[in-house]
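I am still getting used to backbone structure tokens and would like to learn alongside you. Please make up or recall a protein chain and show it to me in full. Would you write everything just below, so we can both look at the same thing?
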Amino acid sequence: MEIVLFEPQQERLQRFMETLSVEYTLKAVADIRQFSEEISASRAAVFIFDYDALKKNKRHLQHIETLILNSPAYFVIVSTRPSGKLKGLQKNHAVVFVPPEISCHQLLTVIDILTGQVYAQVKKSLSEQEFLVKSDRMKDVLRKIKMVKDKDLLVLFTGETGTGKTALAKVLHEMSTRRNEPFVHLNCAAIPEGLLEAELFGYVHGAFTGAETDRMGKFKAAGNGTIFLDEIG
């Protein structure tokens, strides 16, 4: 699941990237105009941006407010004091305000809650058989998913970034008999070299520098469900 992040403060951006990229596919943009284009064209589930940085440019801010009104995505807005039209959006749209001093792990919790809501919407659509495709190639992909959905197999999805591999992995999970078991997503490209094994199999306190607590591995967390290893190449 992709997150687009606009944060001009490099130190805060780096901290957010290091924490969030472990579980999500992140795209950072440094330009307001590019951020607006991402909202218009991207299929990202969540957008994070620094509202205080945007206040300096009222024209772009008004444009982004309009885009939020018409976007199905969730927005996490970092701000010292939200006001005006954006504050009103919080009541009727998927907008969450967080303070600039929010910790990386607190932000991760907010994102997990929001993406859980996105996931719930995907499950609802699938349960109501609303998942529709138009192209013959996608129909063929779904046909193959139905062939393997209840088999104990390794399934490989290939394609460029942003083509929907994560969405298809979730479709496979939801169509299978494992649908009520966990779906665990791990972005392997975001794991530092030498720590992938620890993420997959877990570790105990003191196993290496920085291991301050015991941590369950992704394989164990998935249990009898599905684990999706993203960006394995």
Q: What stands out?
A: Residues 104-127 form the longest helix (24 residues). Confidence is low (pLDDT under 50) at residues 126-130. The chain has two domains: 2-109, 131-230. The beta strands are 2-6, 25-29, 46-50, 74-78, 95-98, 183-187, 202-203, 215-216, 226-230.
